[in-house]
Design a protein that fits this description.
The chain is mainly alpha-helical. It has 18 helices and no strands. The protein is globular.
């Protein structure tokens, strides 16, 4: 449910924007509200399971997620949808860490790796199926079914959980770090709100300035609290390892690029290239399938060369993939343009993921492996949330600059120009005003598409730069002695 939802909603954004006549900022909030609460609370969600019971928190998370999904599907306006997505994020923060904790406690050390591998395989399959299934539902029914489909799944999961899963908890588990969770949520929320609303209100607006000030202040307070609290949700001492710090900085850069890509790419395909929702969902399938089928081979690279070399080469390949996405224009063939870029991006990510996991797990003591994995997962989600907020500004500004330049060529009245300029925040969802002749309307719509591609190219080149930066982080921070093969892993 959680992994399908994390990918399928991006395909539904165009239909949501059209249904509610939403701006791109409101569409961003549909994604950001979910990601914000998931990222901020995923660590405390794991702690709640340790204290109160893994099965209990897992079932509670499923129930919250399902109820919020029903509200999402029945939403009558964009604001109801955003609020319901926030609640979905809270549910996901309980069920995602709960699922892995249940597996870890249910299997002995010998069979645990196989069980987690099965879990990973199913997440990859659902991540692949999600956009295609969602696209089909959007084309043949409604975007609302993207959320309603969670209800029968939730009922089955809750029934099976209560029937088959034994309850487990850690007797010696410490207190839940509620202060840290609150500060992290307000801090991230303040930053996201400030960055995104700056597009509407400007940087000098008190709401924007105040949100950013509260966000930064709460995150500074969060760091101070985590340094002194007895049972921190984010143990700062773990970052003393340069390898762990480097791995998380790499994650921050690389997954920021991936996050904004998966937000903008479906909008490009559906609104500008005029793909169906099903075709847009299928367009990223090669990337996910490469991740799935090459994961074992990538693990062999770690065993043979150590994680450092693949973690330099992988992001370099990813950077090249993003650069390829900056090439296509409007109306180009998928197989000649986007397909090669998707394959290169997927191959680069396949080379990167297993070595990254290896560095995270091997850079801390055995008793902190769970915390290390949870922190890295949280960093990946935070990076996507921040990237959509920050690089969304770049996209809107690039789109507006290019569109204004194109519209200056037409003999349009000041009132029409002002109306188009005011609605530039809709990006490719912007439509020409009624009452214009057919040729002018077509020229304006062509300009809107070209302006979107211009902004998309800028963002893709920034993503390429972020990927290069992640490779540089590995070069500078991951010690060279990790180039040697990893003990205990097969070499082929």
């Amino acid at each position: 449910m959680a992994f399908i939802d994390s990918t399928v909603v991006n395909v539904a954004l165009t239909a949501v924007q059209a249904n509610f006549h939403a701006t791109v900022v409101e569409v961003q909030w549909v994604v950001e509200s979910y990601g914000l609460f998931l990222a901020a609370l995923i660590l405390v969600g794991g702690s709640l399971g340790d204290v109160f019971g893994r099965r209990l928190m897992f079932v509670v998370g499923i129930a919250i997620f399902a109820m919020a999904s029903a509200v999402c599907g029945a939403a009558t306006n964009i604001h109801e949808l955003i609020i319901a997505r926030s609640i979905q994020g809270v549910g996901a923060a309980l069920l995602v860490p709960g699922s892995l904790a249940i597996i870890s406690s249910a299997f002995d050390e010998k069979s645990r790796g196989r069980a987690i591998g099965t879990w990973s395989g199913f997440t990859a399959i659902t991540t692949a199926i999600g956009p295609v299934l969602g696209g089909w539902l959007i084309d043949h029914a409604s975007w609302r079914w993207v959320f309603f489909i969670n209800l029968p799944l939730a009922a089955a999961v809750i029934a099976i959980s209560l029937w088959r899963i034994p309850e487990t908890r850690i007797v010696s588990a410490g207190r839940v770090d509620w202060t840290g969770a609150l500060l992290a949520t307000i801090g991230l929320g303040g930053l996201v709100a400030g960055f995104m609303e700056s597009v509407n209100l400007g940087w000098r607006n008190p709401l924007v300035f105040g949100s950013l000030a509260v966000g930064f202040g709460c995150l500074i307070a969060f760091a101070l609290v985590e340094a002194h609290v007895v049972s921190p949700m984010l143990p700062l001492a773990i970052f003393k390892s340069p390898s762990f710090s480097g791995a998380n900085l790499l994650t921050l850069f690389l997954y920021a690029a991936i996050g904004i890509f998966f937000f903008l790419f479906p909008l490009n395909l559906i609104q500008v290239q005029h793909y169906s929702a099903t075709a847009a969902g299928a367009a990223v399938l090669p990337l996910i399938l490469l991740l799935f089928f090459l994961s074992r081979w990538s693990g062999g690279l770690v065993a043979r060369y150590g994680p450092r070399i693949p973690l330099i080469i992988g992001p370099l390949i990813v950077s090249f993939g993003f650069a390829l996405f900056a090439v296509p224009s409007v109306g180009d063939s998928y197989w000649k343009t986007f397909f090669p870029a998707v394959v290169v991006l997927g191959f680069g990510m396949a080379v990167s993921v297993a070595p990254l996991t290896t560095v995270v797990m091997n850079s801390v003591d055995q008793d902190r492996v769970g915390s290390a994995s949870g922190i890295n997962n949280a960093v990946a989600r935070v990076s996507g949330v921040l990237a959509i907020a920050v690089l969304g500004i770049v996209m809107v500004k690039g789109f507006g600059f290019r569109l204004d330049h194109r519209l200056a060529r037409f003999a349009l009245s000041p009132a029409i120009l002002q109306g188009l300029h005011t609605n530039e925040i809709k990006l490719a969802g912007l439509h020409a005003p009624a009452g214009l002749d057919a040729s002018t309307t077509a020229a304006i719509q062509e300009s809107v598409g070209e302006a979107f591609v211009f902004g998309f190219r800028i963002v893709m080149l920034i993503c390429a730069g972020l990927s290069l930066a992640s490779a540089a982080v590995v070069w500078l921070l991951i010690p060279r002695d990790r180039d040697r093969p990893v003990p205990g892993l097969p070499s082929s």
